[in-house]
Amino acid sequence: MTEMLREGDVLRLQRAFAHCKDESFFEHFRRLLRARLRFDTFLILRFSDSGTPQALDSWLADCSLKTSYPRHYLDGSYRLDPFFQMRKRASPGAMYRLSEIAPDRFFSGEYYLQYYCKTEICDEVGLLVDLKGGATGHLSMSRQAGQGRFKRKELQCLRHFSPVMLELLRQYCEFRQDQLGERVQPPVHSPLDTIIRDHVTALSGTVLTRREAQLAALILQGHSNLSAALDLGIARATVKVHRRNIYRKLDISSQAELFAALKDLF
Predict the structure, then answer these.
(1) What pLDDT is recorded for position 218?
(2) Which residues, at least 6 apart from 131, have a Cβ–Cβ distance to it below 8 Å?
(3) pLDDT recorded at residue 70
(4) Which residues form a coiled coil (predicted)?
């Protein structure tokens, strides 16, 4: 069924476009989407390969979240965020639901249990769009447990109008990017496996191979052995060998202990 814009939607959309290059846009954008669906968090971030994401704007219905989210996220947890990991695969822009892009063991992994679950967020939808200079704009909308998950009709509406939402997001994020004086240089790629490898060596003198570090990153993101094998393009049996080697070198025996050993990164 074709989605129709009501008169109020048209006015809110007009205001959003009129203000996409000034600081009042965030509130106009939030009102535009809030008229069609309920959410408890509304965040706009800028992702890049060269450093910590920038929180451009945020609105949190629950004041208790303000002390733990997004501060904890920006301190390092973003490295395990499925939306952050998806930023280059979404080019030039797309809308996703967390459950669609999360690794197969994400919801039983330590990142989810130790951090994400504590926010009491039960559902999340995000827009990702390419920005000039190689950065990515990200809009995150989520619901806490007491409000229930996004309804199918709400998601259908978002998907239907996502091209318009993505263009609004792109224009505003690029405006803020310029406003902050950040003429983005070619990105310096620092993948999670490199960070893990360097951290382990600095911490204990133990040397992980590049493949072991890649696997450790995937385990922490919530990938099973099979999912990691598919991602790396190797046999599942080979993944098991690498996993045993990682655990032996770090003197650990579980994914939880791996997360604990590398907790300073997250």
Answers:
(1) 97
(2) 46, 137, 170, 173, 174, 177, 184
(3) 67
(4) none
Question: Considering only CA atoms, which of 208, 218, 260, 261 is closest in space to residue 239?
Answer: 218
**Do 144 and 120 touch, CB atoms closer than 8 A?**
yes
Identify the CATH homologous superfamily for domain 7-179: Transcription factor LuxR-like, autoinducer-binding domain (3.30.450.80)
CATH class belonging to 192-265? mainly alpha
pLDDT mean values, one per 10 residues, the chain (266 residues): 77 95 95 93 90 90 69 86 92 95 95 89 96 94 92 93 96 91 55 92 93 97 97 97 97 94 89
| Residue range(s) of every CATH 1.10.10.10 domain in the chain | 192-265
Q: Is residue 82 within 8 Å of 98, Cβ to Cβ?
A: yes
| Contact present, 3 and 160 (Cβ < 8 Å) | yes
Please enumerate in sequence order all residues whose Cβ is within 8 A of that of 245, keeping only pairs 6 or more positions apart, or say none.
Answer: 209, 212
- Rounded-to-integer distance, Cα 51 and Cα 58, Å: 19
**CA 22 to each of CA 19, 135, 212: distance values in angstroms, whole numbers, following the listed order:** 5, 20, 46
